[in-house]
Design a protein that fits this description.
The protein has 357 residues and is an alpha+beta fold.
């Protein structure tokens, strides 16, 4: 499992040439934390820089929206509409109670839709505070969580998406004005395509992993897998069947390979069960009680700790919290991984080892 996932997730082996190719490979890449999510893409692009990833967003190759699990993901310009459409009805139906609690009804959504279309009519990105001000001016309150849920609702209906950052502010774009037209897909085509993207980029994985990741109803997720089974290979272990795009990669991992993964990286978050890469006992070693809520440190494809970063004027200080002692070669591997992050940020990397285990 580990050598194959590391390779198909492009954490080892050939990197992609550009950020859009990364996202197209995965189908969608979780991106709710802006800065960490830039690094999630950068890890998989040859010679990547943070500015280069942001430029791809500004160039309209990528947008962020809420296509699955009510969570922000990167999707490509070609995929944004059909991926959002797959889950939108189910997602909005599941949020009906929360929308009622916020007093967001059809009349309010109609008014906010008109206000958003007017505010974004010139086709340019608008900072979120400015969009909220336009909504308030139209008589639509954004107090509390209403502003967030208004954006989320209109993204799920395909009206808007999150565009490039401007002065460190999140911006909003009118989807049809920002992105070029893209081919339509039937529902079966979309289900099959999403299943193919998932298993080729995340395999070996279980059907229940795809159900979790996609946010689809179990029957629809299984239907998507059924559509692409002939293109996949499988291995059964006990009662579990793992699916993946052939061939199965089993070559040993380079000795002491280390990765500083971002918070909520696909390598960690995209599976229902994570015991293969992280002993459950490690959850007790972090304050949150769950390693998934921290940036994980991998050695040889397995979680060996978590890490934090501190940005100074000319350097980034990386402080690991190790869950086990390092062995020969692992400190050097961590230094190399730290240098990779420093190069991405355009800063000198300083690895502060000795802080704990």
């Amino acid at each position: 499992i580990i050598p194959h996932r590391l390779a198909t997730q492009r954490l080892v082996g050939p990197k992609f040439s550009d950020p859009a190719s990364v996202v197209a490979h995965f189908g969608a890449v979780q991106g709710q934390d802006t800065l960490y999510s830039l690094w999630a893409l950068g890890l998989r692009v040859a010679g990547a820089t943070e500015g280069g990833i942001e430029q791809a967003i500004a160039d309209r190759q990528l947008v962020r929206t809420w296509p699955m699990r009510t969570t922000l993901h990167y999707v490509t310009a070609a995929d944004a509409r059909w991926i959002v459409r797959l889950n939108a009805e189910r997602t909005l139906r599941g949020a009906a109670r929360r929308l009622r609690e916020l007093e967001l009804d059809e009349a309010t959504f109609a008014r906010s839709r008109r206000a958003i279309e007017s505010a974004l009519a010139d086709g340019r990105p608008l900072a979120r505070p400015a969009l909220y001000a336009a909504l308030e001016a139209a008589g639509v309150s954004t107090a509390g969580q209403r502003g967030y849920y208004l954006m989320w609702y209109h993204a799920n209906e395909g009206l808007i998406a999150i565009g490039p950052r401007r002065d460190k502010q999140q911006t909003v774009v009118l989807l049809d004005a920002w992105l070029p037209p893209a081919p339509e897909r039937t529902r079966d085509e979309a289900l099959g395509e999403l299943a193919w993207r998932y298993f080729r980029s995340h395999g070996p994985a279980l059907a229940k992993d795809f159900i979790w990741w996609s946010g689809l109803a179990a029957a629809e997720a299984r239907a998507g897998l059924e559509i692409v089974k002939s293109r996949l290979a499988s291995e059964t272990v006990g009662k579990e069947t793992f699916w993946f795009a052939p061939p199965l990669i089993t070559e040993p991992i380079a000795a002491s390979a280390a990765h500083l993964l971002p918070y909520l990286d696909e390598y960690i978050v995209a599976y229902r069960e994570r015991d293969a890469i992280q002993p459950p006992a490690y959850n007790a070693l972090v304050e949150s009680g769950n390693v998934i809520f921290h940036p994980p440190l991998l050695i040889d494809g397995r979680v060996a700790g978590i890490w934090t970063r501190k940005l100074n004027k000319d350097r980034v200080v990386i402080t690991p919290k190790l869950f086990r002692p390092l062995v020969a070669g692992e400190a050097e591997a961590l230094t190399l991984a730290s240098a990779q992050l420093g190069a991405f940020l355009g800063l000198t990397a300083e690895l502060a080892l000795g802080g704990g285990g």
